[in-house]
Design a protein that fits this description.
alpha/beta, Amidase signature (AS) enzymes, 11-stranded mixed sheet, 16 helices, 13 strands, 39% helix
Length: 493
Protein backbone atom coordinates (compact mmCIF):
# COMPACT_ATOMS: atom_id res chain seq x y z
CA UNK A 1 0.00 0.00 0.00
CA UNK A 2 1.07 3.61 -0.55
CA UNK A 3 0.71 5.03 2.93
CA UNK A 4 0.76 8.62 1.70
CA UNK A 5 -2.54 8.14 -0.15
CA UNK A 6 -4.27 7.89 3.24
CA UNK A 7 -5.11 10.47 5.87
CA UNK A 8 -3.63 10.19 9.34
CA UNK A 9 -6.89 9.13 10.98
CA UNK A 10 -7.28 6.36 8.35
CA UNK A 11 -3.79 5.02 9.07
CA UNK A 12 -4.58 5.00 12.79
CA UNK A 13 -7.55 2.71 12.09
CA UNK A 14 -5.39 0.42 9.95
CA UNK A 15 -2.84 0.15 12.77
CA UNK A 16 -5.59 -0.52 15.31
CA UNK A 17 -7.05 -3.24 13.04
CA UNK A 18 -3.59 -4.78 12.47
CA UNK A 19 -3.79 -4.13 8.72
CA UNK A 20 -0.55 -2.16 9.02
CA UNK A 21 2.27 -2.27 11.57
CA UNK A 22 4.00 0.85 12.87
CA UNK A 23 7.47 -0.30 11.67
CA UNK A 24 6.00 -0.88 8.19
CA UNK A 25 4.61 2.65 8.18
CA UNK A 26 7.87 4.26 9.27
CA UNK A 27 9.94 2.16 6.83
CA UNK A 28 7.59 3.24 4.02
CA UNK A 29 7.90 6.83 5.15
CA UNK A 30 11.70 6.85 4.86
CA UNK A 31 11.51 5.01 1.55
CA UNK A 32 9.21 7.78 0.32
CA UNK A 33 11.68 10.41 1.50
CA UNK A 34 14.49 8.65 -0.39
CA UNK A 35 12.36 8.71 -3.55
CA UNK A 36 11.52 12.41 -3.42
CA UNK A 37 14.01 14.27 -1.24
CA UNK A 38 16.59 14.78 -3.97
CA UNK A 39 14.17 16.89 -6.00
CA UNK A 40 12.31 18.61 -3.13
CA UNK A 41 14.84 19.22 -0.35
CA UNK A 42 12.19 19.27 2.39
CA UNK A 43 14.39 18.08 5.26
CA UNK A 44 17.57 19.39 6.85
CA UNK A 45 18.10 16.42 9.20
CA UNK A 46 16.57 12.94 9.50
CA UNK A 47 16.22 10.66 12.52
CA UNK A 48 15.81 7.30 10.81
CA UNK A 49 17.52 5.04 13.34
CA UNK A 50 15.70 6.44 16.39
CA UNK A 51 12.39 6.56 14.51
CA UNK A 52 12.58 2.88 13.55
CA UNK A 53 13.63 1.97 17.06
CA UNK A 54 10.62 3.77 18.52
CA UNK A 55 8.32 2.23 15.89
CA UNK A 56 9.34 -1.27 17.00
CA UNK A 57 8.90 -0.34 20.66
CA UNK A 58 5.41 1.11 20.09
CA UNK A 59 4.40 -1.90 17.99
CA UNK A 60 5.52 -4.23 20.76
CA UNK A 61 3.51 -2.26 23.33
CA UNK A 62 0.48 -2.40 21.06
CA UNK A 63 0.79 -6.17 20.70
CA UNK A 64 0.87 -6.45 24.49
CA UNK A 65 -2.32 -4.41 24.79
CA UNK A 66 -0.68 -1.31 26.23
CA UNK A 67 -1.88 2.21 25.45
CA UNK A 68 0.47 3.95 23.05
CA UNK A 69 -1.21 7.34 22.65
CA UNK A 70 -3.75 8.80 20.27
CA UNK A 71 -1.36 9.12 17.31
CA UNK A 72 -0.36 5.43 17.06
CA UNK A 73 3.14 5.93 15.67
CA UNK A 74 2.25 8.35 12.86
CA UNK A 75 5.35 10.03 11.38
CA UNK A 76 5.84 13.66 12.43
CA UNK A 77 8.09 16.15 10.63
CA UNK A 78 9.22 19.08 12.75
CA UNK A 79 10.12 22.60 11.64
CA UNK A 80 13.79 23.29 12.33
CA UNK A 81 13.15 25.86 15.08
CA UNK A 82 11.12 23.69 17.47
CA UNK A 83 13.47 22.05 19.97
CA UNK A 84 13.91 18.28 19.99
CA UNK A 85 16.17 17.04 22.76
CA UNK A 86 19.57 15.91 21.47
CA UNK A 87 18.60 16.46 17.82
CA UNK A 88 20.18 19.19 15.66
CA UNK A 89 17.85 22.21 15.67
CA UNK A 90 19.41 25.07 13.70
CA UNK A 91 16.69 27.49 12.48
CA UNK A 92 18.28 26.77 9.08
CA UNK A 93 21.06 29.21 10.04
CA UNK A 94 24.85 28.87 10.02
CA UNK A 95 25.00 30.50 13.43
CA UNK A 96 23.19 27.55 15.05
CA UNK A 97 24.80 24.70 13.11
CA UNK A 98 25.56 21.76 15.43
CA UNK A 99 23.21 23.08 18.15
CA UNK A 100 21.50 20.21 19.99
CA UNK A 101 18.82 21.38 22.45
CA UNK A 102 18.99 19.89 25.95
CA UNK A 103 15.19 19.68 26.20
CA UNK A 104 12.02 19.06 24.18
CA UNK A 105 9.57 21.77 23.23
CA UNK A 106 6.17 21.52 24.92
CA UNK A 107 4.49 20.42 21.68
CA UNK A 108 7.08 17.67 21.12
CA UNK A 109 6.41 16.41 24.62
CA UNK A 110 2.68 16.33 23.92
CA UNK A 111 2.70 14.80 20.43
CA UNK A 112 5.71 12.48 20.66
CA UNK A 113 6.27 11.58 24.30
CA UNK A 114 2.63 11.45 25.42
CA UNK A 115 0.62 10.55 22.34
CA UNK A 116 2.95 8.32 20.35
CA UNK A 117 3.83 10.28 17.21
CA UNK A 118 7.28 9.45 15.84
CA UNK A 119 9.68 12.30 15.09
CA UNK A 120 11.30 11.52 11.73
CA UNK A 121 13.35 14.68 11.21
CA UNK A 122 13.45 18.46 10.96
CA UNK A 123 12.24 20.34 7.92
CA UNK A 124 13.79 23.21 5.97
CA UNK A 125 12.69 26.80 6.59
CA UNK A 126 13.62 30.40 5.96
CA UNK A 127 16.46 31.30 8.32
CA UNK A 128 14.99 32.16 11.74
CA UNK A 129 11.54 31.99 10.05
CA UNK A 130 12.22 35.21 8.13
CA UNK A 131 10.75 34.79 4.67
CA UNK A 132 7.82 33.63 2.56
CA UNK A 133 9.56 31.22 0.19
CA UNK A 134 12.11 29.07 2.11
CA UNK A 135 14.79 30.55 -0.14
CA UNK A 136 16.50 32.21 2.83
CA UNK A 137 17.71 28.90 4.31
CA UNK A 138 21.43 28.29 4.68
CA UNK A 139 20.70 24.81 3.31
CA UNK A 140 19.18 26.13 0.07
CA UNK A 141 15.51 26.30 -1.03
CA UNK A 142 12.75 23.72 -0.79
CA UNK A 143 10.89 23.13 -4.07
CA UNK A 144 7.15 22.88 -4.59
CA UNK A 145 5.83 19.32 -5.17
CA UNK A 146 3.27 20.66 -7.67
CA UNK A 147 5.98 22.19 -9.87
CA UNK A 148 9.60 22.06 -8.75
CA UNK A 149 10.53 25.33 -10.44
CA UNK A 150 8.25 27.05 -7.88
CA UNK A 151 8.74 27.92 -4.21
CA UNK A 152 7.02 25.93 -1.50
CA UNK A 153 6.15 29.04 0.50
CA UNK A 154 7.59 30.07 3.81
CA UNK A 155 8.77 30.13 6.29
CA UNK A 156 7.55 26.56 6.99
CA UNK A 157 8.16 25.54 3.37
CA UNK A 158 9.86 22.25 4.17
CA UNK A 159 6.92 21.19 6.33
CA UNK A 160 4.40 22.11 3.63
CA UNK A 161 6.32 20.26 0.92
CA UNK A 162 6.83 17.19 3.11
CA UNK A 163 3.07 16.85 3.60
CA UNK A 164 2.15 17.63 -0.01
CA UNK A 165 4.65 15.13 -1.43
CA UNK A 166 3.67 12.33 0.96
CA UNK A 167 6.98 12.25 2.82
CA UNK A 168 5.15 12.36 6.15
CA UNK A 169 1.63 12.37 7.56
CA UNK A 170 1.89 15.09 10.21
CA UNK A 171 4.06 18.20 10.40
CA UNK A 172 4.66 21.08 12.79
CA UNK A 173 5.19 24.64 11.66
CA UNK A 174 5.24 28.09 13.22
CA UNK A 175 3.32 31.14 12.06
CA UNK A 176 4.54 34.70 12.71
CA UNK A 177 2.91 36.44 9.75
CA UNK A 178 1.58 33.56 7.67
CA UNK A 179 4.41 31.02 7.87
CA UNK A 180 2.05 28.05 8.23
CA UNK A 181 -0.74 29.28 5.97
CA UNK A 182 1.51 30.45 3.11
CA UNK A 183 3.13 27.03 2.47
CA UNK A 184 -0.24 25.35 3.06
CA UNK A 185 -1.70 27.54 0.30
CA UNK A 186 1.22 27.11 -2.11
CA UNK A 187 1.50 23.35 -1.54
CA UNK A 188 -2.22 22.53 -1.48
CA UNK A 189 -2.46 21.24 2.10
CA UNK A 190 -4.12 22.27 5.38
CA UNK A 191 -2.41 24.72 7.73
CA UNK A 192 -3.74 26.04 11.03
CA UNK A 193 -2.52 29.09 12.95
CA UNK A 194 -4.11 28.89 16.43
CA UNK A 195 -5.07 31.83 18.64
CA UNK A 196 -2.05 33.41 20.30
CA UNK A 197 -1.69 31.61 23.63
CA UNK A 198 -3.66 28.50 22.63
CA UNK A 199 -0.46 26.47 22.14
CA UNK A 200 2.64 26.85 24.29
CA UNK A 201 5.68 28.45 22.66
CA UNK A 202 8.09 26.81 25.13
CA UNK A 203 10.90 25.34 23.04
CA UNK A 204 10.12 27.46 19.99
CA UNK A 205 13.22 29.48 19.09
CA UNK A 206 11.84 32.99 18.94
CA UNK A 207 11.57 35.28 15.93
CA UNK A 208 8.96 37.79 17.22
CA UNK A 209 7.55 36.83 20.61
CA UNK A 210 4.25 38.71 20.38
CA UNK A 211 3.42 37.17 16.99
CA UNK A 212 4.87 33.61 16.93
CA UNK A 213 2.52 30.65 17.25
CA UNK A 214 3.04 26.90 16.66
CA UNK A 215 0.48 24.99 14.60
CA UNK A 216 -0.10 21.84 12.52
CA UNK A 217 0.27 21.23 8.79
CA UNK A 218 -1.58 18.15 7.49
CA UNK A 219 -3.31 16.69 4.46
CA UNK A 220 -6.82 17.12 5.85
CA UNK A 221 -8.75 19.18 8.39
CA UNK A 222 -9.48 16.21 10.66
CA UNK A 223 -5.77 15.53 11.23
CA UNK A 224 -5.15 19.20 12.07
CA UNK A 225 -8.06 19.15 14.51
CA UNK A 226 -6.66 16.04 16.19
CA UNK A 227 -3.19 17.55 16.51
CA UNK A 228 -4.59 20.77 17.96
CA UNK A 229 -6.59 18.85 20.58
CA UNK A 230 -3.34 17.29 21.76
CA UNK A 231 -1.09 20.37 21.50
CA UNK A 232 -3.34 22.91 23.20
CA UNK A 233 -3.46 23.78 26.86
CA UNK A 234 -1.80 25.70 29.65
CA UNK A 235 1.95 25.28 30.07
CA UNK A 236 3.48 26.58 33.33
CA UNK A 237 6.73 27.17 31.41
CA UNK A 238 5.06 29.65 29.03
CA UNK A 239 3.37 32.58 30.75
CA UNK A 240 1.61 33.55 27.50
CA UNK A 241 -0.19 30.21 27.20
CA UNK A 242 -3.83 30.45 28.23
CA UNK A 243 -5.49 28.34 30.91
CA UNK A 244 -8.85 27.55 29.38
CA UNK A 245 -10.81 24.50 28.31
CA UNK A 246 -9.60 22.77 25.13
CA UNK A 247 -12.49 21.82 22.89
CA UNK A 248 -12.90 18.39 21.32
CA UNK A 249 -12.29 19.77 17.86
CA UNK A 250 -12.68 16.44 16.07
CA UNK A 251 -16.21 16.03 17.48
CA UNK A 252 -17.29 19.45 16.18
CA UNK A 253 -16.26 18.94 12.54
CA UNK A 254 -19.43 17.30 11.23
CA UNK A 255 -21.88 19.80 12.69
CA UNK A 256 -24.00 21.64 10.10
CA UNK A 257 -23.00 25.20 9.25
CA UNK A 258 -26.44 26.40 8.12
CA UNK A 259 -26.63 28.97 10.93
CA UNK A 260 -23.11 30.32 10.38
CA UNK A 261 -22.69 33.91 9.27
CA UNK A 262 -19.57 34.40 7.17
CA UNK A 263 -18.02 37.83 6.73
CA UNK A 264 -16.47 38.74 3.38
CA UNK A 265 -13.99 41.62 3.83
CA UNK A 266 -13.93 43.75 0.69
CA UNK A 267 -10.34 44.82 1.38
CA UNK A 268 -9.13 41.20 1.07
CA UNK A 269 -10.33 41.04 -2.53
CA UNK A 270 -8.77 44.30 -3.67
CA UNK A 271 -5.84 45.29 -5.82
CA UNK A 272 -3.04 42.74 -5.98
CA UNK A 273 -5.21 39.63 -5.63
CA UNK A 274 -4.78 37.41 -8.69
CA UNK A 275 -7.98 36.98 -10.75
CA UNK A 276 -7.79 33.18 -10.70
CA UNK A 277 -7.28 33.21 -6.93
CA UNK A 278 -10.31 35.46 -6.40
CA UNK A 279 -12.46 33.35 -8.74
CA UNK A 280 -11.62 30.08 -6.95
CA UNK A 281 -12.22 31.62 -3.51
CA UNK A 282 -15.58 33.09 -4.54
CA UNK A 283 -16.66 29.70 -5.93
CA UNK A 284 -15.73 28.14 -2.58
CA UNK A 285 -17.84 30.79 -0.82
CA UNK A 286 -20.75 29.79 -3.10
CA UNK A 287 -20.25 26.19 -1.93
CA UNK A 288 -20.51 27.30 1.70
CA UNK A 289 -23.71 29.19 0.89
CA UNK A 290 -25.09 26.03 -0.73
CA UNK A 291 -24.46 24.29 2.62
CA UNK A 292 -26.67 26.87 4.31
CA UNK A 293 -24.14 29.44 5.53
CA UNK A 294 -25.08 33.10 5.15
CA UNK A 295 -22.63 35.74 3.94
CA UNK A 296 -22.42 39.44 4.72
CA UNK A 297 -19.96 42.16 3.79
CA UNK A 298 -17.57 43.31 6.52
CA UNK A 299 -14.67 45.73 6.53
CA UNK A 300 -11.11 45.71 7.85
CA UNK A 301 -10.42 49.37 7.05
CA UNK A 302 -6.86 49.45 8.36
CA UNK A 303 -5.70 46.55 6.15
CA UNK A 304 -3.64 48.96 4.04
CA UNK A 305 -1.38 49.62 7.03
CA UNK A 306 -0.88 45.99 8.08
CA UNK A 307 2.27 45.16 6.11
CA UNK A 308 4.13 48.24 7.36
CA UNK A 309 2.86 47.69 10.91
CA UNK A 310 3.69 44.00 10.89
CA UNK A 311 7.22 44.41 9.59
CA UNK A 312 8.06 47.25 11.99
CA UNK A 313 6.95 45.14 14.96
CA UNK A 314 8.43 41.82 13.87
CA UNK A 315 11.77 43.37 12.82
CA UNK A 316 12.04 45.25 16.11
CA UNK A 317 11.35 42.10 18.11
CA UNK A 318 13.75 40.11 15.89
CA UNK A 319 16.50 42.68 16.45
CA UNK A 320 16.06 42.29 20.20
CA UNK A 321 15.80 38.48 20.14
CA UNK A 322 18.79 37.94 17.87
CA UNK A 323 21.10 40.22 19.87
CA UNK A 324 22.07 37.18 21.96
CA UNK A 325 23.58 35.38 18.95
CA UNK A 326 27.13 36.69 19.13
CA UNK A 327 29.13 33.45 19.18
CA UNK A 328 29.81 33.69 22.90
CA UNK A 329 26.38 33.44 24.52
CA UNK A 330 24.71 31.61 21.62
CA UNK A 331 25.85 30.41 18.24
CA UNK A 332 29.09 29.59 16.44
CA UNK A 333 31.88 32.16 16.70
CA UNK A 334 33.83 33.38 13.68
CA UNK A 335 37.04 31.48 12.94
CA UNK A 336 38.85 34.83 12.70
CA UNK A 337 39.46 35.93 16.30
CA UNK A 338 41.64 38.96 15.55
CA UNK A 339 40.65 42.36 16.93
CA UNK A 340 38.75 43.25 20.10
CA UNK A 341 35.57 41.57 21.32
CA UNK A 342 33.32 43.95 19.35
CA UNK A 343 35.15 43.12 16.11
CA UNK A 344 34.74 39.39 16.77
CA UNK A 345 31.04 39.75 17.59
CA UNK A 346 30.44 41.87 14.48
CA UNK A 347 32.38 39.47 12.27
CA UNK A 348 30.54 36.46 13.73
CA UNK A 349 27.12 37.96 13.06
CA UNK A 350 28.13 39.16 9.59
CA UNK A 351 29.44 35.75 8.58
CA UNK A 352 26.84 33.52 10.21
CA UNK A 353 23.58 35.41 9.55
CA UNK A 354 22.15 35.40 6.03
CA UNK A 355 21.27 38.59 4.11
CA UNK A 356 17.54 38.62 4.99
CA UNK A 357 18.22 38.19 8.71
CA UNK A 358 20.84 40.93 8.63
CA UNK A 359 18.39 43.22 6.77
CA UNK A 360 15.73 42.72 9.43
CA UNK A 361 18.20 43.27 12.27
CA UNK A 362 19.33 46.56 10.69
CA UNK A 363 15.77 47.80 10.19
CA UNK A 364 14.58 46.64 13.62
CA UNK A 365 17.54 48.21 15.39
CA UNK A 366 16.90 51.46 13.53
CA UNK A 367 13.20 51.44 14.50
CA UNK A 368 14.13 50.95 18.18
CA UNK A 369 16.91 53.53 18.25
CA UNK A 370 16.74 56.83 20.14
CA UNK A 371 14.72 59.41 18.28
CA UNK A 372 12.90 56.85 16.14
CA UNK A 373 11.34 54.58 18.78
CA UNK A 374 8.22 56.76 19.17
CA UNK A 375 8.06 57.59 15.47
CA UNK A 376 8.09 53.99 14.27
CA UNK A 377 7.74 51.25 16.90
CA UNK A 378 5.24 52.94 19.24
CA UNK A 379 3.18 54.15 16.30
CA UNK A 380 3.12 50.60 14.88
CA UNK A 381 1.81 49.28 18.21
CA UNK A 382 -1.00 51.84 18.10
CA UNK A 383 -1.97 50.85 14.55
CA UNK A 384 -1.87 47.21 15.66
CA UNK A 385 -4.61 48.07 18.18
CA UNK A 386 -6.68 49.63 15.40
CA UNK A 387 -6.33 46.45 13.29
CA UNK A 388 -7.34 44.31 16.26
CA UNK A 389 -10.39 46.53 16.81
CA UNK A 390 -11.33 46.12 13.13
CA UNK A 391 -11.57 42.37 13.64
CA UNK A 392 -13.44 42.72 16.94
CA UNK A 393 -16.01 44.89 15.20
CA UNK A 394 -16.30 42.48 12.28
CA UNK A 395 -16.89 39.53 14.62
CA UNK A 396 -19.77 41.41 16.22
CA UNK A 397 -21.54 40.89 12.89
CA UNK A 398 -20.31 37.44 11.77
CA UNK A 399 -19.02 34.11 13.08
CA UNK A 400 -15.99 33.78 10.81
CA UNK A 401 -14.29 35.67 7.99
CA UNK A 402 -13.51 34.01 4.65
CA UNK A 403 -11.01 35.22 2.05
CA UNK A 404 -7.94 34.13 0.06
CA UNK A 405 -4.94 32.88 2.02
CA UNK A 406 -2.38 34.34 -0.38
CA UNK A 407 -3.01 36.91 -3.12
CA UNK A 408 -1.20 34.70 -5.64
CA UNK A 409 -0.14 31.12 -6.27
CA UNK A 410 3.43 29.85 -5.86
CA UNK A 411 5.92 32.01 -7.74
CA UNK A 412 9.11 30.74 -9.36
CA UNK A 413 12.27 30.13 -7.36
CA UNK A 414 14.43 33.26 -7.60
CA UNK A 415 11.61 35.44 -8.95
CA UNK A 416 11.22 37.68 -5.87
CA UNK A 417 14.34 36.95 -3.82
CA UNK A 418 16.01 40.19 -4.94
CA UNK A 419 12.86 42.25 -4.38
CA UNK A 420 12.18 42.05 -0.62
CA UNK A 421 9.40 44.64 -0.75
CA UNK A 422 7.32 42.52 -3.14
CA UNK A 423 7.99 39.48 -0.95
CA UNK A 424 6.77 41.40 2.11
CA UNK A 425 3.62 42.59 0.30
CA UNK A 426 2.70 38.95 -0.39
CA UNK A 427 1.92 38.63 3.34
CA UNK A 428 -0.85 41.23 3.21
CA UNK A 429 -3.70 38.73 3.76
CA UNK A 430 -2.01 36.63 6.45
CA UNK A 431 -0.14 39.03 8.75
CA UNK A 432 -3.28 40.89 9.99
CA UNK A 433 -4.31 37.66 11.75
CA UNK A 434 -1.04 37.57 13.71
CA UNK A 435 -1.27 41.26 14.61
CA UNK A 436 -4.74 40.62 16.06
CA UNK A 437 -3.74 37.30 17.67
CA UNK A 438 -6.75 35.42 16.25
CA UNK A 439 -6.89 31.91 14.68
CA UNK A 440 -6.96 31.16 10.95
CA UNK A 441 -7.12 28.03 8.80
CA UNK A 442 -5.98 27.57 5.20
CA UNK A 443 -7.36 24.76 3.04
CA UNK A 444 -7.00 24.13 -0.71
CA UNK A 445 -10.00 25.30 -2.73
CA UNK A 446 -8.88 24.86 -6.33
CA UNK A 447 -6.09 25.29 -8.86
CA UNK A 448 -5.00 28.00 -11.27
CA UNK A 449 -4.41 27.54 -15.01
CA UNK A 450 -0.88 26.28 -14.27
CA UNK A 451 -2.24 23.56 -12.00
CA UNK A 452 -0.97 25.28 -8.85
CA UNK A 453 -3.01 25.12 -5.62
CA UNK A 454 -5.06 28.06 -4.34
CA UNK A 455 -5.59 28.55 -0.61
CA UNK A 456 -8.87 29.48 1.10
CA UNK A 457 -8.51 31.22 4.46
CA UNK A 458 -11.04 30.99 7.29
CA UNK A 459 -10.41 33.47 10.10
CA UNK A 460 -12.04 33.03 13.50
CA UNK A 461 -12.74 35.02 16.63
CA UNK A 462 -10.48 34.54 19.64
CA UNK A 463 -10.23 30.85 20.65
CA UNK A 464 -12.87 29.82 18.11
CA UNK A 465 -10.70 27.17 16.48
CA UNK A 466 -13.64 24.77 16.63
CA UNK A 467 -15.68 27.17 14.46
CA UNK A 468 -13.11 27.58 11.69
CA UNK A 469 -12.26 23.86 11.71
CA UNK A 470 -15.97 23.04 11.38
CA UNK A 471 -16.35 25.36 8.36
CA UNK A 472 -13.09 24.13 6.86
CA UNK A 473 -14.08 20.50 7.21
CA UNK A 474 -17.50 21.02 5.63
CA UNK A 475 -15.95 22.89 2.70
CA UNK A 476 -13.20 20.31 2.33
CA UNK A 477 -15.72 17.48 2.10
CA UNK A 478 -17.85 19.44 -0.38
CA UNK A 479 -14.95 20.36 -2.69
CA UNK A 480 -13.38 16.89 -2.35
CA UNK A 481 -9.99 17.90 -3.78
CA UNK A 482 -7.87 17.31 -0.68
CA UNK A 483 -6.91 13.80 -1.82
CA UNK A 484 -5.55 15.03 -5.13
CA UNK A 485 -1.85 14.18 -5.27
CA UNK A 486 0.93 16.56 -6.26
CA UNK A 487 3.00 15.36 -9.24
CA UNK A 488 5.99 14.72 -6.97
CA UNK A 489 3.80 12.44 -4.85
CA UNK A 490 3.03 10.40 -7.95
CA UNK A 491 6.69 10.02 -8.76
CA UNK A 492 6.70 12.84 -11.31
CA UNK A 493 9.44 15.45 -11.52
Amino acid sequence: MKFYEYMGYELIEKIKNKELSIPELIESCFHRIEETEQILHSFVALSKEKALEKAKSLDKDLEQGKKIGQLYGLPLANKDLICVKGFPTTCSSKILQDYHPPYNAFVIGKLVEQEGAIHIGNTNMDEFAMGSSTENSCYGPTYNPWEISRVSGGSSGGAGASISSGQTILALGSDTGGSIRCPASFCGVVGLKPTYGRVSRYGLIAFANSLDQIGPITKCVYDSALMLEIMSGKDPLDSTSVDMKVDKYTEELSKPIEKKILGIPKEFFGEGVDNEVESAVRKAIDKLESLGAKTIDVSIPHLEYTVATYYLICMSEASSNLARYDGLRYGNMSDNLSGDVYDVFSRTRGERFGPEVRRRIYLGTYALSAGYYDMFYIKALKVRSLIKNDFVEAFNKCDSIVCPTMPLTAFKVGELIDDPLQMYIADVLTCPVNLAGIPALSIPCGFDSNGLPIGFQIIGDYFDEKGILNIGYQLEQELNIYRKMAPAAKGGK
